[in-house]
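Model: Ready when you are.
Researcher: Fold this.
Model:
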Amino acid sequence: MTLTWIVLGLGNPGPQYEKTRHNIGQLVVDELAARRSETFRAHKANARVVETRLRPGGDRLILAKANTFMNVSGGPAANLARFYDVPAERLVVVHDELDIPFDTIKLKVGGGHGGHNGVRDVAKALGTPEFPRVRVGIGRPPGRQDPADWVLDPFSASDRKALPSLVSDAADAVELLVDEGMLAAQQRWHAPR
């Protein structure tokens, strides 16, 4: 029996935010769509989606990007979950994480939001924090820069060099999570490299 999974990449809409740290979740779902030669289309859940498969005959993947700003991602997340009849445990949220060094990926289910307003809003809208998360490290800002400004800044020149590899790794982590489960994905991505 095949299952349906939603992979929601968090970010902000509009070209001015496309290449910012806060939009790395959307870059990851873009990578997953590109691997399948798919393009996003409008969906009534106030999101853009790609309906595809993990592999031919495999689990169904709904790749999604909300049309709303990051801090109100919950409405589209809950709408997509209802539309596709997907429980929270199969709604994977991919997002930036300040408390993880750049070029690092961590996975978890549930727990707190760590001050991430997008994750907070998704948990509130779903009525539970118990959903899988692929947390893509962007690191803390240098010096005394406000983290709110840091996440909305474009990646530095040195980070841009590593970004394609990081986005590809995060997409691999999503695929492994869906294919083999959270434990297998954590063992692969949490091990020292």
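Researcher: Now this one.
Model:
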Amino acid sequence: MIGRMGMAALLVLTVAACERDNPTLFNLRKADRTPDEFSILPSRPLEQPENFAALPPPTPGGSNRTDRAPEAEAIAALGGNAAAGAGADGALVAAVSRYGLQQGIRGQLAAEDLEYRRKNDGRLLERVFNVNVYYKAYRPLSLDQYAELARLRRAGVRTVAAPPDPATVD
């Protein structure tokens, strides 16, 4: 017979496994308190100015000449004018939004993905033992690249060379 302590432990495990506010499929949890290496942006190289007297005053906690400017870099990478900012580049915005815009798309996609993750959060023991179920959960939504390549070639679309399908290689 299971004692009272065993029943209490079983009840606690059952209740703990039922619902989570933010289910995660990837189960990436850090055990230590070290910095996240993916949140650190490399700065531009230091350069010596021609005239030290002409430098602007320091801005503690503000930006400096070696800080990254992700928005300006993205505008420049897409062929826009980074000095004018995103609002001044109507042609760039028109090209990017040529297929239309949907207001609130980020919130809608986040809500749909959260609902999908809740439905595909893994079995009880996968959650208890912190098993990564990310790839299994999203497998039905992934594109079979070799089937798509074959479909495009049958349709007469010229495609780049691709490595052979590992499933068909002897």
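Researcher: Key takeaway?
Model: The first helix runs from residue 4 to 18.
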